[in-house]
Each structure stands twice: as structure tokens, then as C-alpha cells.
Amino acid sequence: MKIDLSTILSVFIQALSGVPLTLEMTIVPFAIACALGFPMAIVNVKRVPVASHLFKVFISFMRGTPIIVQIFLIYNSMPALINGFCTAAGIDINVFAINPVIYAITAFSLSETAILAEAFRAALNTVDKGQIEAAECVGLTGLRAYTRIVIPQALGSSIPVLGNAVCDLIKTTSLAFSMAILDVTGIAKVQGAASLDYIDAYIAVFLVYLILVLLFENLFALADKRLNAGRRPLQVTR
Amino acid sequence: MEKILSYIPQLLPYLSVTFEYVGLSLLFGTILALILLAMKLCRFRVVRAVAYGYTTVMRCTPSVILLFIVFYGLPSLLQAWLGVNIQNADAVLFVVATFTLFLGGSVSEVIRAAYLSIDHGQCEAALCVGLSKRQAILRIVAPQAFYLMLPNLCNTLQFLLKEGSLGYIIGLVDITGKAFLLNSNTMSAYVLQIYLALSLIYWPLSIAIEQGFKALERRFSYEAAPVRAADEPAVETEAISARFAKSGEAA
Question: Which residues of A lie closer than 8 Å to B, measured between beta carbons?
């Protein structure tokens, strides 16, 4: 087996141009998932009837099926849904002109929402119930006790878990190539096919992901150190 | 809806391939993990650094990329080193090789974390009451460490089941591969039905794994029953816990 360093280097440089897209498909879904997952976690912790049951089914499905299957489902059903919606609303739209990145972001957002909802739920549960009672005793309302006492502590302890989730998401975005998106992996696939030198192309992308994930891992470790100094971090399970 | 249900029986026979790579990867992955664990607990710094470096690299690699590297790299590597030709080997071989590499890293970390979280005093106490070192590890440390490993092992198994579905990319015909082929054969006319049927197979499987591990955790919980060796018969355990429950009621 021969490994050609110059090919690896040239693919590495080309793959770097896919990094912004990979980051876009990481950060946008992560932000959406934070926004949706946190209320979902609160609903589940408070055991709101009906809503918490629906969310539990959603979370269970999203965590119980492979992401690639979810991508297939969304990639194949969303164009028809958008088309139907726009026809009903009287908007003229060409669904085939829609950038597939939209579908990728939708798929990653949904699965990430389920993951983060569980992470936040676990974090909220780490805050002792006695603290809410104590807060109510000193005269805080239920909502205040939550926003002032419980949530800040829960967020602090969830940082390592969030870091893990982001790193997993970066790795998951590599599946976007199945939607014909030219992110880091997509570029490697094209380059590999063009030069018939797949192994070098994939080693180059492997290096790109290694750097990206290590970067985010260290960022979150730093944030954890800064914010949780002296506080015991939540056990990270994988 | 009927169409969805009609596709499930067509996919189910290929579940055996899915179980095959899950089982084999778990077996070989655990063997690799034990080797790495021995390296991590080794006296020599270089050996430790290699094992930790390997774990970090595996944690940072997307499954698809490693799958591709193994799929394109392993045949030429074996050809060059051993002169063995595996160009035409079954795709399942590459999937098992890929996930063995992944599991080696993650499972060795799982075992190490569990092993380290058992208080060293327990081992010393066991030695004090006259157990041999072997007995202390097998009877005192291992059962407790196993209990601590359960949640992470559950995650590992679910990871394996779900990420293994990527094998379809290199032509593996497991349930996902079969669904992919069925979809191609029908020109994507029933694409949603086929993939919904597929997810209806994965979903209960994941739930079963989760519930199975919860049951194991209850069984091995040393808060419910006193610490005991993993090889003790389960029937006896039930008798013990029943006795505890009774004495509790009497009190």
C-alpha cells in the first residue's frame, strides 16, 4: 500500500474549503436544538400531561433510529411537503431549486433536539429538589426559583455534555454527502473519485475532522473550567 | 400504512446480518479494549501515550470516514504485508473491522473509568480479610465495576446498532442495505414507506436494548442486594432479595 503525501496535502487544502459548510451544519442545528430542547426538557421534568408524553415518543424515536434513516425520511418527504404547502398557500416555488443544506439542517436539528432535551433533563435533575423548596421559603415565586436558582446551576453542569453533543454533531454532519452536499466529506468523495486515490483522500478528511473535533473539545473544556471552577462536573456518559 | 407493514417482513430476514456485525464487533472490540486497557495501565509512558492517543483519534473520527478508510485501505494493507487478497471479501468484514477499531477506544475508556471509580480501600480491605489478589478483583472489584459500566455499555451497543447501518454505503446488505435496494428496485416510488418500515424495526430494537440494560442494572445494583460475584446464580439472588423484603416487612 502506498500513501502519497502530496495527494493528502492537496485534498486536505481542498477539504478545508468545505469546513465553513460543515460548521454551518453544526452550529445552526445546535442553536435550534438548544432553543427547542430546553423547553422540551422543562416540560418533561415538570411532567406536563400529554405534551411530555408526545415529547417522550419523539425523543425515543429520534434516539432509537439511525440518523441515516432519518436523513432518508426527511430528504424524501420534505420536498413534497414544501411543495404541497406552497401550492396551498399560492406561492410559486421550484422545490428542485431548494438547497439540500436546508434538508440537512432540518434532519440534524431534529435529532439533536432529542439528544439535547435528554441532556438538559438530566442536568435539571441534578439540582437538588430542596433548593427549589428553599428558594420558595425565602419568598421567590416558582418561576423565579427556576430561572434564578435551578437553571443557572443546570446549565453549568451540562457544559461537558453539550461539548460531547457538539463533537458528535460535527461527526454526524459527514453524512450530509448522502444528500449530495459538498461539505468536507463530499469534497473528499469527489476528489477521491476524480483521482481514484480514495485512501489518500479519506486520510486527508480524517485529519480535517480530527482537528475540528479536537478544537471544539478543548473549547468546551475551557468553558467548563472557567464556568464551573470548584464545582463538580456532571458525569459524561457515552 | 398497509404498504409500510408489507415491507417489514421483507426486511426482517436481513436482521441476522445486523446482529452478526453487532455481535462480532462487540466481541473483537472488547478484546481490543482489554489490550488497550492493559496499555493504559502500563508502567511505560510511551505505551500509555499510544493507547490514549489512539482513543482520542477514534473519538474524533466520523464513522463513515473510518469505514471508507478501512474499506479502501485494509485490502491493500493486507496485500502488501501478508500477501492476502481480501478484495472480494464480504462487506460485513469491513464493517466489523471498522467498529472493532471504534469500540476498542471507547470500551477501554468505559472499563477504565469504572475500574478507577471503585475505591482502592475496598481492594485493600479484601486483602486484609484474607482474600487473594485474584479473588479481591474477581469477587469485590469486578462486580461493582460491571454495574458502573452498564449505562455506558448500553450506549455503546445502541451506537453499534445505529452506526452499523452505514454499512449499506460499502454494499453491505443488512436491513438498511436491503431497504436501500428495495428503494432502488421500486424507483423510489415507495421511498417513505420503505424507510418508515425500516425505522419501525430499529426503534423497538433500541428500546429493547435500553430496557434490557435497565433490568441488568436493577439486578446488579448493590444498593438493592449485597455485593456478590457476577457468576453467582440468579435464582439465589431472588431468594436473598425476597428474604430482605420479608425481614423489612416484619420490622
Answer: 1, 60-61, 63-70, 72-73, 76-77, 167, 170-172, 174-175, 177, 185, 188, 198-199, 202-203, 205-206, 209-210, 213-214, 217, 237-238
The rounded distance, in Å, linking the Cα atoms of B7 and B191 is 11
Q: Which has the closest alpha carbon to B217: B157, B161, B143? A: B143
Strands (E), chain B: none
Quick check: B238 pLDDT over 90? no
Domains in chain B with CATH codes: 16-171 (1.10.3720.10)
For the A5-227 domain, the top CATH level (class) is: mainly alpha
For A185, the closest of B65, B155, B158 (CB atoms) is: B65
- Whether residue B166 and residue A202 make contact (CB cut-off 8 A), yes or no, is no
d(CA B15, CA A75): 24
- Cβ pair A178, B67 in contact under 8 A: no
How far is residue A106's CA from residue A124's CA, in Å, rounded to a whole number?
26
Please check whether residue B156 touches A, CB under 8 A.
Answer: yes
What is the rounded CA–CA span in Å between residue B92 and residue B14? 12
For A67, the closest chain B residue by CA position comes to B162
Tens of pLDDT along A192-223?
888 778 888 899 999 999 999 999 999 999 98
| pLDDT (average), residues B166-187 | 89
Say if the Cβ atoms of B192 and A77 lie within 8 Å: yes
- To 10 degrees, what angle do helices A5-16 and A184-195 make? 140
How many helices (H) and strands (E) chain A has is answered by 10, 0
Query: Does the beta-carbon distance from A238 to B68 stay under 8 Å?
Result: no
Interior angle at CA A49, CA A47 and CA A55, nearest 5 = 75
pLDDT digits (tens, 9 = 90+) for A2-16: 677 888 888 898 889
In tens, the pLDDT along A71-123 reads: 999 998 888 888 888 888 887 777 777 888 999 999 999 999 999 999 999 88
| Complex prediction ipTM | 0.86
